[in-house]
């Protein structure tokens, strides 16, 4: 939600660009980002930097803004008739007498569709991620760490300092090798809490084909975050 430090300004151009200014007490420099879903441009401004200087920074990167805004995914509501790829298989959302998976279908009962679909997908993600994490952990001589599933806005997974893993349940909508790569990536953080060459060596040991999964996430991951399960 917006607050007193959030406001939208215009960067002149052809066409003009709208940028949300967000002051941050933790920021050390001006940063410019574009949300993957919706294409909103956000300018994070540290203390001591004026709006004018921040907007000048944004204007100097207008080409970057336009490229990323054009590439952003528009929200895509999930409803009856929507076809999703779940675990690599096409699945159509249908109205039925019970909620859950069927042959080529994902059934929902009376009521809002999106939240019911999300609940089924979350269960499917847990059923796939749990074994994947356990397998990769075992390959490192570790017991399976606890995992949590969330509906994140941009991150596919994370590893806490205490060794707990978090994953986006939307990974179940990606091809199985992509889900497996993210599981391997986060398990590798149990060995290396960084992205050093040593970390990537662990990832490569767990998933020799991880680069293909990375390419898929870069090219198509945004489309998964664009799916709107609120209605």
Automatic annotation (TrEMBL):
Pfam families: YgjP-like (PF01863). Residues 117-219 form the YgjP-like metallopeptidase domain. It comes from the Bacteria. InterPro entries: UTP_pyrophosphatase-like, YgjP-like_metallopeptidase. This is M48 family peptidase. It comes from Palleronia sediminis.
């Amino acid at each position: 939600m917006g607050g007193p430090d959030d406001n939208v300004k215009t960067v002149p151009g052809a066409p003009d660009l709208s940028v949300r200014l967000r002051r941050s007490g933790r920021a050390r420099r001006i940063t410019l980002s574009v949300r993957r879903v919706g294409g909103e441009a956000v300018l994070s401004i540290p203390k001591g930097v004026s709006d004018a200087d921040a907007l000048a920074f944004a204007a100097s990167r207008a080409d970057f803004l336009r490229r990323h805004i054009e590439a952003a995914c528009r929200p895509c509501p999930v409803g009856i008739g929507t076809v999703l790829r779940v675990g690599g298989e096409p699945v159509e959302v249908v109205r039925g007498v019970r909620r859950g998976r069927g042959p080529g279908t994902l059934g929902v009962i009376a009521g809002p569709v999106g939240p019911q679909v999300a609940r089924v997908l979350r269960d499917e993600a847990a059923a796939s991620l749990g074994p994947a994490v356990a397998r990769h952990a075992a390959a490192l001589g570790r017991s399976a760490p606890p995992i949590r599933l969330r509906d994140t806005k941009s991150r596919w997974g994370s590893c806490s300092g205490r060794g707990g893993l978090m994953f986006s349940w939307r990974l179940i909508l990606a091809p199985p090798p992509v889900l497996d790569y993210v599981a391997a990536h986060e398990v590798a953080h149990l060995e290396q809490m960084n992205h050093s060459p040593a970390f990537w060596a662990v990832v490569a040991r767990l998933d020799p084909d991880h680069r293909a999964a990375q390419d898929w996430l870069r090219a198509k991951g945004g489309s998964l975050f664009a799916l709107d399960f609120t209605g």
